[in-house]
Amino acid sequence: MSRLLRSAIFSGNTVRSTSGRTVASLRRDSINCGPIPRCCRYSSKLSPSASASASASASASAALRPTPSDLQASAAYRDSLPVCAVDKKRVMIGWDTRTWSRFHHVWLRDHCRCTKCFHQITKQRLVNTFEIPADIEPLEVAPTAEGLSVTWSGTQPHLSIYPWSWLQSNSYDPPLEHARSSQEKVLWGSKIQQHPPAVSYEEVMNPDDKGLHKWLLKIDEFGFCFVNGVPPTPEATEELSMRIGFIRETQYGKFWDFTSDLAKGDTAYTTLALGAHTDNTYFTDPCGIQLFHLLSHTGGTGGATLLVDGFYVASILRATHPSVYSLLSRVPVIAHAAGEPGALYIPSPSSGYPVLGHGRVTGELVQVRWNNDDRSVVKGVTGDEMEEWYNAIRVWHKLLTSPDSEYWVQLSAGTAVAVDNHRVLHGRSAFDGKRRMCGAYIGIDEYKSKLTVLQERFEINLPQVVQGRSIWHPHI
């Protein structure tokens, strides 16, 4: 943005320089900002007393006039700041000539992070939201190096400062593209076998947490990651699991160590082949990470592990069969776990959840829930859609079982794998002999929490850090 535009005064649709010359016209339909009655910049207005004082000291200040280099530095400084304007309801911020964000006054006042309004240690709101006047307006708004400075009216004026990066990441009118985008995902098919994501056990267990950060980033990026060099014992595998977070206990126990003896009422405890599926479709909150480790397989063959990227398959489905994608994103599927006499699990609400789950705000695909073996009676489908629904799951199944989608790998003792159960489906081929497997579930919130803490530690640099966490962290 030019220096002239940054120092301009906004009047309706037209931007005028301080000399009154028209320098640009802003179409409201292009920025959807509405009339902009006054410009917010470093305050150039002086109170009457300050003005008199300034006149009295004019001769003294003449000797302190800025040099050309001072003026150049000042111009560069102004150019680095966003332009902003204010009306009765909102503050408008121009990040460049085409990109604007609008923030309501009440929203800004509610999000003040000063020591009086926000507890710096507990990171909890102290301001009483319900005492903020609905028609609150700022006394002054100004761009500064630290961020947007807002002075609020009241018995005592209140100053709030909002970092520019924080405002960009929390822009809601409109949401900014870079702020909405989540961590980049790598979608994959069978060719992932050439370079599957992997880390070493030694890296992950190092107390400096750099290897743990690397591991969780790979899970986030690919939906799974191998860990090589794990001691082939339940104890070492359990310790590895707990590097992510506490283990989630279910009807199958806490940390599992099992063979194909039907000790639990689930086909996982048999020698049968298992098609690609996600676990816990019968839970309201399916586990986030499933970690498993083949400890031994003696006296037989088979039992290869199958992994399928549900997001990859869903992307193909959306491109080739949009109506099927829409149906599987809309129609809920009921599931159950009923193999244990002392437990009968169904999700809440009992109508179930769609196969493809999306973020409510972004619309992005965030979860795949699919286990045809655990599917209950189909009754969430209307009579007119029943045949269409069965056709939809046939198409889905065909894509899941395509050679392009399936990644088969023969696990061996010493190699564990962690799978994002909200994205990657897993299965196995039939086998014979004695196969001993161990593993655990970790909740999605525990996994995301650990990943976020490690990203905070190794990736981002935010202002005003108090007890290890910035008050401007994007998640708070």
TrEMBL record:
Domain Gamma-butyrobetaine hydroxylase-like N-terminal: start-end pairs: 87-167
GO MF annotations in UniProt: iron ion binding; trimethyllysine dioxygenase activity
Annotated catalysed reactions: N(6),N(6),N(6)-trimethyl-L-lysine + 2-oxoglutarate + O2 = (3S)-3-hydroxy-N(6),N(6),N(6)-trimethyl-L-lysine + succinate + CO2
Pfam families reported for this sequence: GBBH-like_N, TauD
SUPFAM superfamilies the UniProt entry points to: Clavaminate synthase-like
Source species, domain of life: Eukaryota
Key words of the record: Carnitine biosynthesis, Dioxygenase, Iron, Metal-binding, Oxidoreductase
GO biological process: carnitine biosynthetic process
Record keyword Manganese present: no
Cofactor: L-ascorbate; Fe(2+)
Residue ranges constituting the TauD/TfdA-like domain according to the UniProt record: 198-441
GO cellular component, one term: mitochondrion
Pathway participation: Amine and polyamine biosynthesis; carnitine biosynthesis
Enzyme Commission designation: 1.14.11.8
Chain's role: Converts trimethyllysine (TML) into hydroxytrimethyllysine (HTML).
Alphabetical list of PANTHER family matching this protein: GAMMA-BUTYROBETAINE HYDROXYLASE-RELATED, TRIMETHYLLYSINE DIOXYGENASE, MITOCHONDRIAL
Family to which the UniProt record says this protein belongs: Belongs to the gamma-BBH/TMLD family.
Protein name per UniProt: trimethyllysine dioxygenase
